[in-house]
Amino acid sequence: MRRYKSLNNLVGWLVFAVATLTYLLTLEPTASYWDCGEFIACSYKLLVPHPPGAPTFLLLGRLLSLLSFGDATKVPILINALSALSSSFTVLFLFWIITMLAKKIVVGQARLADGRAVEPTSGQTIQILGSGVVGALAFAFSDSFWFNAVEAEVYAMSAVCTAVVVWLMLKWENRADEPDSDKWLILIAYAIGLSIGVHLLNLLAIPALGFIYYFRKNATPTLLGSFLTLVISSVIVGVILVGIIPGLPSLAGGFEVFFVNSVGLPFNWGIIIFLLLFLTLIWLGFRYAARTGNRLLNTALLSFVFILIGYSSYLIVPIRSSYHPTINENNPEDVLSFVSYLKREQYGDRPLLYGPQFNARPIASKEGAKRYVRKGDQYAEAAPRTEYEYAPEDKMLLPRLYSASPEHLYQYKKWVDIREDVKPTMGQNLSFMVRYQFGHMFWRYFLWNFVGREGDMQQAGVVTPFSSKNGLPERVAESNAYNNFLALPLILGLVGLFFHTRRDGKNAFIVGLLFVFTGLAIVFYLNQPPIEPRERDYTFTGAFFAFSIWIGLGVMALAEGLRTILKADGLRAGVATLVGLLIPGIMVAQGWDDHNRSNRYISVDSAKNMLDSCAPNAILFTNGDNDTFPLWYAQEVEGYRTDVRVAVLSYMNTDWYIDQMKRQSYKSAPLPISLEHSQYVEGTNDYLPYVENPAVKEVNLREFISLVKQNSPLLQVSYGEGGPMLLSFPTSKFFLPIDTAAVQKMGIIAPERRSQLVDRMEWNMGKGAIEKKNLAILDILASNNWQRPVYFGTTVNSQDYMGLEPYFQLEGMAYRILPARDPNYNPRSGDDGYIVKEQMENILLKKFAYRNLDNPAVYYDENSQRFPANYHDKFARLANSYLAAGNVAKAKEVAVQCLTRIPDAAIPYDFYTPQLVPALVKGGETVRANQIMDLLTNRAQLALAYYTAHNPALHDQDIQQNLITLQSVARAADGVGDQTRAAKAFGLMQQYMPAQQ
């Protein structure tokens, strides 16, 4: 037995080493897109990220970041490595899980209580370990898991939590008859508690654990017993998910409000009383269990306590929030705001089992649960959230077609034949669930990992053994992410599933339950809308983990199949293992190039470039996620340009964020917002509707802000019959008087623009509502007096510009608002912002960094390829500005610099690139210009032919992009007098336009 145990440990650690080396070699060296920049920044300084937070991840990330020894550039590598190590340990525990299950089968102990009793023979040992190696490495090199392993996200650590609890439960199963076996259950409870501070996905393993317990305690399980096990384990999940995580803090919050408001105690005394009472009840429970000798109750109470100990990592959230750190999302500094944070209330909810369908209209509204905020020495009731009621006939079971968003309605029609004015049938509802939610958003991902993936484009399909690259768009056919596994992992996994079911039905059922709950059950619970901002395959790695167990056990099935050919156990096991190893070999060979993120710096460079677009002490308004999180990383971790205040527009609609913007942050002074907290608290001035007053032709911005601050009756309107009074705006025409003498003294207007300086800025706000974020921006414009530069990021949605575009000056990747009107502004051109050429050239060519954007060996996925399009646009704008000024040499130089720093071989040309053609042709680079136009025309032609023939509705965005590219080529060609190329591009547009109508 010692020999097998030693080999099992040794081979497991070798598999761990292979996985670790793979992940470290392909690790992203800095903060990648999406949440990674936020998690790295929040780990480094223990800040408060978006709800519901991940305190366990942050604490471990903080510990690893200490190994940087003050070198901030090493921090992202170390925190990314936390995911790599988490993934490696997941692979290690998966190996041991497979070998435990395999050993039960190989040595005929599937029906024995203790799987440790028999020493396998040499041949059996090879078979067991070979199964573990193949299954573990297949999972290690699977697409979704590998993606999570090389960036600072929570899903890798969530996976290791799942792997640990399953492994611990199998360890308990082998030791359940020992007197101290309950210690394993308590350790599992602690691991589950810790996992709550990472991600809640781990809780979905509990039903599988419940069946391991039931089958171990009952030699002859019954259908009723199995049903009760499923019910009890599901209740345990519910108790943790609802009763413990938000439930206990909610109860503590109720005590707090009562004892502060009703009894008159100081703040936090209600929480203290709750804790004392809660601890007393736990102590009484233990005392009762000891007196009665109730081992089950004692173990249950211990498990409960250890879940709470693990869950206590969440205390870091209100503790750190109370210190008002620079990133403090939702400001959960007291128990009441902490509960809202845990419940993710800012994201709203989706109907799950019963609710309204998409064309339901509210018939009534009511106030939601009471909300409290601190005011003076008590808790005051805050404006409650509104809850809408719907007619019973507008509700349905399992509402999957529920969103009334115009974008979602458009997307629904791609999957089911619906009409917006007709209630969907249950058949249509279930069809969407099966086709989109289960099919497109789960089984497609499943097949990506075990059959093949078409590419990194969103909505990418599955590559099968019979797929051909003939006719595929170049972006797909030549993508590193085009991976074909020949369906071998799927086949071996299905063979393993069949074999496992035949040889050890109970454990096969448990693995199947793990697959269902960490895969299909998540799909059902999420009730995903018909479009997502990015692919969500990382959510389902738990299901892929379970299937990889069957891939490993498939090696045993191969060995059994070779029994009639090869009689020697060792030889048969060795051949089966070698054949099985071909599968992870194919997976790593296919997946290495598109999972290798080494030498990729685009996200952080883009953030630093945006910061360097701004003048000192600037205010920069940005979008969320990919715009903001890299900026947070650059400022919080590397301390880069902390004089610039980054203001996230989506957060500016909340009171807690505006409060934070009114505080000092590093070198950035508070924002000049004159509104008081009471004037933007939640429920107050959330939006100001347009209500025309013919007597008011235009409004002075400063006077308007003053009226808002006074809650003036002049702006008040009634919302509905008997409804609340809201502030409004009476005209869409706003103006702001300018002290031109003071502005000239500041020197913020370039000499060439002095004639454009206006004594009064005038703009049209439009007739939509003024949201809270717009009100805050208007307040800044009214109060700032041009003391601080104010910018919008060029990637911000144009609807947030509020009609101020004529006063934009383009500086790098940001629009600066200046009291100088661009005389050539044309709203139809799409070219916002006046360009001061020398300033823009200095920013683009001297300040900006483009690390490795000229290196074809570095892999850039779809998200990474989107941002460089902004560089192409800005280079083209500058080149054409020089061209318009008659400086052909400079125009050519700028265009050539763009193509040199960001060549097509590294970052493919996009629809902005043809805008460089006029500068190239005028500068004598006609051959190069023609190559650009021909290349883009041919690519668009091939892509349009493919997408219009293969599910055009699903690829409408790709079709639209290629049509825009052709339009850009046609304009460029026409602008340089190349009618042949213009006609070809225009003709292709005409040919494929009907497919869009």
TrEMBL record:
Residue runs in coiled coils: none
Bilayer-crossing regions: 7-25, 53-70, 77-102, 122-142, 154-172, 184-215, 227-247, 267-284, 296-317, 481-500, 507-526, 538-559, 571-592
UniProt signal peptide: none
DNA damage recorded as keyword: no
Pfam entry (one): TMEM260-like
Keywords attached to this entry: Membrane, Transmembrane, Transmembrane helix
This protein's record includes keyword RNA-binding: no
Name assigned to this protein: DUF2723 domain-containing protein
Highest classification ranks of the organism: Bacteria, Pseudomonadati, Bacteroidota, Cytophagia, Cytophagales
